[in-house]
Amino acid sequence: MKILFISSKHSPDANSSSLIKDLVDEFFQQGHETVVLTPTDGEVPSDKVENGYRVVRSISKKIFAVKGLKKALGVFTLSYYFKKTIKNKFKAGDFDLVVMHTPFIASYGLNKFLKSYLKCKTHLIVWDLFPQNAVDIGLIKKSVLTNYLFQKQNKLLNQVDFLSCMSKGNRDYLVEKHMVSSEKIGIIYNWGTKNPNSALVNKKDRKDYGFNQDDFILLFGGNQGLPQRLEYMIHLAQDLKTDIDIKIVFVGGGTENAWLQSQVDQYDLKNVSILPQVSRVEYLSIASMCDIGLVSLDERFTVPNFPSKTTDYFSSGLPVVAHVDSVAHNDYGEFLSNITKSGISTIAGERSSLIKAVLSLKSDPNRRKSMSEYGKVFFKENLSVKNAYSKLCELWKLSTPSNYL
Questions:
Q1: Where in the chain are the domains?
Q2: Pick the CATH number of 203-381 from 3.40.50.11810, 3.40.50.2000, 3.10.100.10, 3.40.1160.10
Q3: pTM over 0.90
């Protein structure tokens, strides 16, 4: 099968890992003809073979590490640059399928162009629904523009040939709010890979990160942005200050990283460590020495969310404590508590319930061990990139690489 993957980022490093890159690698390894189209983010465009397959880096304005009008300009012109690059690089018949993802990589106009110009089917991976999530947390206000974007998004969701989302709640939302046919929607959990060559550290290496052997460490990994409502994690750190053996470590980066550091300094939170974004191997090493994985989401969200950091928490055997909006609590929380039995979900803003969840797990090592094992088993059986590959082939009614759509 000939597949074009359109992605927001794609590292040339063979050892790097991201959701789309891992998926592309898997399809390539399974014998499919794979090509990647990705923006340069303001850098020099290129077209070359990377890690065995072709990667076309399309000219684009900056999208990442910028805010406000600059980011908006980069996002809204991306479809134009993609169309231009596709016309220059590809022709009808080159692909059987194009795979895109949300947010902002896919648009109604781009999808319509792909179907008419390349004469192929399209698949949309739904990770985020813009502009609804942005409206929910006050990043943008409802206006004529947002109404226009909602209309275009609705057309896109109904125009693509296939959709995949991360949970039953996601699927129900698409069916009920956007009238998308459930027949073309597949539920595919976020997948992950675990580098088998990485020598994961154990507790004796905690000193390398400034922790003691007996510390009880809470990990907040991944993006540090507005959707994560990090003030709740600051509240948690404040409430746990007297428990001197409980430490919180943040690993990653994002728009709120500087604010997070300012809060740690302002409240003299000696129980908090902030580490920069690190390699995947080092991140998994850090995760392996922690005791709990933390998840936080803004309480104003109305679209079901499935935090991607869950996958790495499970693979590292971390019980999860989530502090999320009521919509996610009923969907993602059900996933944690009953489907996987690997964590505790609390409702964002209910400060005492978050502390209670953390302290209850700290005092019950047997329960933590049970949750850890459940998470690792669920990861192995359901969250591998091979599982995502199989689910997509099933959705596309594809049995082998030679059976084209």
A1: 2-192+383-395, 203-381
A2: 3.40.50.2000
A3: no
Half-sphere exposure at residue 4, Cβ-oriented, CA atoms within 13 angstroms: 26
Q: Round to whole Å and give the CA distance between 225 and 298.
A: 10
Q: Which long-range contacts (CB under 8 A, 24 or more apart) does 208-213 make?
A: 209/249, 209/273, 209/275, 209/286, 209/289, 210/273, 211/247, 211/249, 211/273, 211/289, 212/245
Please give the span between the terminal C-alpha atoms of the chain, in angstroms, as a whole number.
8
Decide: 250 and 277 in contact? Cβ < 8 Å: no
Distance of alpha carbon 43 from alpha carbon 12, whole angstroms = 14
What is the arithmetic mean of pLDDT over 299-317? 92
For 55-85, write each residue's pLDDT tens digit: 999 999 888 877 778 887 888 889 999 999 9
pLDDT in tens, 335-388: 999 999 999 999 999 999 999 999 999 999 999 999 999 999 999 999 999 999
**Whether the Cβ atoms of residue 100 and residue 106 lie closer than 8 Å to each other:** yes
* 2-192+383-395 and 203-381 agree in CATH topology: yes
What six digits make up the tokens of 229? 């409502």
- DSSP secondary structure string, 301-345? --S----THHHHHHHTT--EEEEE-HHHHHHHHHIIIIIS--EEE
**Dist CA 163 CA 396 (whole Å):** 10
pLDDT of residue 194: 54
Q: Please give the single-letter amino acid code of residue 16.
A: S
CA dihedral 14, 18, 23, 24 (to 10 degrees): -50
CATH number of 2-192+383-395: 3.40.50.2000
What pLDDT score was predicted for residue 351?
94
Question: What does the pLDDT look like over 105-127, one tens digit per residue?
Answer: 888 999 999 999 999 999 999 99
**What element of type H or E holds 54?**
strand 53-58
Contact 372, 318 (CB under 8 A): yes
Tokens of 147: 């109404």
Tens digits of residue pLDDT in 42-52: 889 999 999 99
pLDDT band at 146 (very low <50, low <70, confident <90, very high): confident
**Helix residue ranges per DSSP H, 60-215:** 68-89, 108-117, 132-136, 144-159, 168-178
